[in-house]
Amino acid sequence: MSELVARILVVDDDKAVRAALRVNLRKAGHEVQLAQSVDEALRMISERPVDLVLTDVAMPGRTGLELLAELRRRWPTVRVVVMTGYGSVEDAVGAMKSGADDYIIKPVSRNELLVIVDKALAEKALLAELVQLRQQVQDQYGYKEIIGCTAEMVEVYELIETVADTSALVLLQGPTGTGKELISSAIHYRSDRRGAAFVRVNCAALPEGLLESELFGHEKGAFTGAVRQHRGKFEQADGGTLMLDEIGEITATTQVKLLRVLESGEFTRVGGSEPIKVDTRVIAATNRDLLSEVREGRFREDLYYRLNVFNIQVPPLKDRRDDVPLLVDHFVKRFAERHGRSPELSVPAATMQRLLNYHWPGNVRELQHVVERAVILSKGAELTGVKLPEAPQGRPPGAEVLPDGMTLQAALLEYERRVLIEALKAADGVQAQAARDLGISRSNLNYRINRLRIQIKDIVYE
Ligand SMILES: Nc1ncnc2c1ncn2[C@@H]1O[C@H](COP(=O)(O)OP(=O)(O)OP(=O)(O)O)[C@@H](O)[C@H]1O
Ligand SMILES: [Mg+2]
After folding, report:
1. Nearest CA to ligand 1 atom 12
2. How far is 76 from 99, CA to CA, in rounded Å?
3. Which end of the chain has less Cβ packing within 10 Å, N or C?
């Protein structure tokens, strides 16, 4: 007997098929209803909701694809498996594109039928579980702004909890757009420093000299233009938290100065001689792989170890795809309100499926932009206008115009990713070979693989 027992509606104009399915599904413990047309099916569902619909495609009157569309619109959580004859496999493809959960090519063996049904039901159970789990996670940790309830994110929450109340240095690493800023402020506001300031410095935004005066301050007359004394961010964050964002970008000279400050807890303002002591907690963040930077000689090893007291790795979105529906819902609500769209704005299942399948090189930031744009375009009750960049295939995008909403950086990263994956595929995963083919060093390839978080499964399945 199957583990998940469900209410299933079978829709087929062929009486023999209906009967056979009923016998097999009942044997597995399911409750089965039969309909011979789309209209009859819709009537039955209106009267009593079902968990799963198994529908034929070609039937007199409305087709199974029309039923699918109607179900998606009115009962988005109902699972739908489409059945087609051997000769019309393209219907199955069409159905999957329109948001069917699975398809069956008739005739189907009993085992195959039960496997497909179980899988569709398990996904439904998972969805319900996810919503529940999310509630639990939010209740337990009280995170309002950080969305995510996958095991990967729960681990991040636990690390935040563990470290918040200490004054330990934190090193946050993760690809672009994964929420490092959100996490930094979560750490601050959960620590007993929350009464003092949370100050962020983007280390990539300023040239060396200015960055130093920004961090440590300067005395009046320290350099041309220093018309008055200036307190640096380390002082402004005294008693609180200083987030050194994009730490991977600081120059060698600044690295030395920073190391000294972290070791002694003291510094002098630029142009000053008085040592200043502060109680500032530092959170450093970067979207680079700092250890590779150390290996490549771009980042001081001693500073790396000094910063790396407590490491939090934020996973890319494609490694926690179950968070995608939550994030989509969250941003749909937020932007519907902000842009005056329907508060009931719903996401068609087929659209959600596309969002789930996409690999999100720009992570949550990218998802947020895609959803915001779509919400603005959605004048009705359904989310429309979701536009995802096509993955550049095999050859360089050349001088092509970027797909709408995609930044140059995201396009380049995506392109680089494809090139690397193709090269690794061609070399059967042998990195040394792939590096030779690409004309780069092995360590350079390794650095890029780490930076783009390319995994074996990307090479095998993509
Ligand atoms: N888990 C999340 N839940 C809700 N919003 C998120 C989440 N992660 C990121 N965001 C949102 O995505 C955007 C990018 O996040 P953030 O600026 O924190 O990224 P980052 O990791 O600092 O990226 P970068 O390395 O490019 O600076 C922000 O608007 C943030 O609010
Ligand atoms: Mg950031």
Report:
1. 365
2. 10
3. N
329 by DSSP, 3-state: which? helix
**How many angstroms does the Cα of residue 185 sit away from the middle of ligand 2?**
11
Closest CA to 280 of 218, 209, 200: 200
Query: Do 7-130 and 151-313 come out as alike in CATH topology?
Result: yes
Which of these, 220, 227, 208, 206, lies nearest to 269 by C-alpha position?
220
Query: Of 184, 165, 402, 202, which is closest to residue 314 (Cα–Cα)?
Result: 184
- Tens digits of residue pLDDT in 328-364: 999 999 999 999 999 889 988 888 888 988 999 999 9
Q: Rounded to the nearest 5°, which phi and psi values hold at 432?
A: -60, -45
Largest separation between any pair of C-alpha atoms in the chain: 93
Q: Which two structure tokens, joined as six digits, stand for 395?
A: 């050859």
Domain range summary for the chain, segments of one domain joined by +: 7-130, 151-313, 318-461
H or E segment to which residue 103 belongs: strand 102-106
What is the number of the ligand 1 atom nearest to the C-alpha of 146?
Answer: 3
Pocket test residue of 137, 202, 365 for ligand 1, highest count of atoms within 8 A of CB? 365
- Among 80, 76, 151, CA closest to 119: 80
Mean pLDDT of 377-394: 81
Distance CA 122, CA 250 (A): 49
Q: From the CA of 122, how far away is ligand 2's center (Å)?
A: 37
Q: Best-predicted range by mean pLDDT among 67-71, 127-131, 170-174, 348-352?
A: 170-174
- Span 151-313: which CATH code? 3.40.50.300
What is the fold, at CATH topology level, of the domain defined by 7-130? Rossmann fold (3.40.50)
Q: Is 142 a residue whose pLDDT tops 70? A: no
Judge if pTM exceeds 0.70.
no
Q: How far is the first Cα of the chain from the last one, in angstroms, to the nearest whole number?
A: 35
The reported pLDDT for the residue numbered 412 is 76
**What's the token pair of residue 348?**
């068609």
Q: How many residues does the chain have?
A: 462
Instruction: Say if residue 435's pLDDT is above 90.
Output: no
CA dist 274 to 16, 128, 219, 235, 239, Å? 92, 61, 10, 14, 20
